[in-house]
Design brief:
Helices cover 38% and strands 20% of the residues. With 201 residues, it is α/β, with parallel strands linked by helices. The structure holds zinc ion.
């Protein structure tokens, strides 16, 4: 609420050219040619809007600091650059933000990004993945931990089985996290069609 009011009272300047009134003007948006479709670990198709550098990186950093207008600009950019990948029969599943990062900011940015993207693209969102490492692993026996395999768990297997999933994340580096998430969703019975991310490092 307060953040929204703050954004309305102090609209950003374009991070690229300094123009007032928008955090990312049309002229400074990453070009469509910057978007890529690559093949990540496990054969997962990964679509990104651009490289994690320059203007795109600066807008992502503002978004990570909680600026809503940056989130709006990024989700609309991602929706445009992933047109043709997302379809109404898909379900968007956000990659969980690590515990430390989430508690520091008080919200999960990949959930927000997925919800905004879902609104733009007309695709439902299911927050089906959580991190299973750390606290959740403590107190378990070795065999229980081995059975849990991987760093993520699916919390809604009944809803997930039989769906066609597209994973959503902000920045992809090696793609290992996306591959882990894809594997977890597949074990829960989903078909993972692709991942869409804002930027590739
Ligand atoms: Zn600009």
């Amino acid at each position: 609420m307060f953040a929204r009011l703050f954004d309305a009272l102090f609209p950003g300047r374009c991070v690229g050219c300094g123009r007032a009134g928008t955090v990312l003007c049309d002229a400074c948006r990453p070009r469509p040619e910057a978007a890529r479709r690559t093949c990540g670990p496990g054969g997962l198709a990964i679509a990104s809007a651009g490289r994690y550098a320059g203007v795109l990186r600066r807008v992502i950093l503002l978004y990570k600091r909680g600026r809503r207008d940056a989130g709006d600009a990024l989700s609309s950019l991602l929706a445009e650059r992933t047109r043709g990948i997302l379809a109404p029969h898909h379900v968007l599943v956000p990659v969980p933000t690590t515990r430390g990062r989430r508690s520091a900011r008080g919200y999960d940015q990949s959930v927000r990004l997925a919800r905004a993207l879902g609104k733009h693209a007309g695709v439902p969102v299911l927050v089906a993945l959580v991190q299973s490492a750390g606290d959740a692993q403590r107190g378990r026996s070795r065999s229980e931990r081995l059975a849990a395999r991987g760093r993520f768990s699916c919390v809604a297997p009944a809803l997930v089985a039989g769906t066609r999933v597209v994973l959503v994340d902000d920045v992809v580096t090696t793609g290992a996290t996306l591959a882990d998430c894809a594997e977890t969703m597949r074990r829960a019975g989903a078909v993972v069609d692709a991942a869409v991310v804002l930027a590739r490092a």
